[in-house]
Amino acid sequence: MSTEVRGTTFTGGSTTFGEPAVRPGTLADRADFLTARLTPVACRACGTEVLVRKNSAQHTSIQWTSDPASSCPRYAEQVARGGSTALLDTCPRLSDSIAQAAAEGEVPIGEEP
After folding, report:
1. Which of 11, 31, 85, 112 counts the most CB atoms within 10 A of its CB?
2. What is the helix (H) or strand (E) element at residue 17, kind and residue range?
3. DSSP state of 73
4. What are the structural domain ranges in the chain?
5. In this structure, what are the phi and psi dihedrals at residue 58, rounded to the nearest 5 degrees?
């Protein structure tokens, strides 16, 4: 069983008896949670583009659309030193770009699209 939302397919598998393991509504809810209200934002320093959702002024979700170490100089620097990108919170220049985009109304904050 699968559900497609905005070009992304979510699968839920099936039980031993061939019945859906996850209700279709649950798959749609999961897809909506993961993809709804994502807004593309480009870093104003290096141009790296990410997808962003701001649930509140304090809460920001970032979905990378490329490998951070290949597209962001800060992440590339971390990897060049032998570090892991997982250990970086985020790039401060990217955070500033997202904050500016939100302040300028380019990224909706809260439930409203």
Report:
1. 31
2. none
3. H
4. 1-36, 38-113
5. -90, -30
Distance CA 111, CA 105 (A): 14
List the beta bridge partners of residue 14: 20
Query: How many CB atoms lie under 10 A from the CB of residue 59?
Result: 10
How far apart (Å, rounded) are the C-alpha atoms in residues 91 and 85? 10
3-state secondary structure of 4: strand
* Amino acid, single-letter form, for residue 46: C
Q: How far is CA 88 from the centre of its chain?
A: 16
Query: What does the pLDDT look like over 56-100, one tens digit per residue?
Result: 999 999 999 999 999 999 999 999 999 888 888 889 999 999 999
Residues constituting the chain: 113
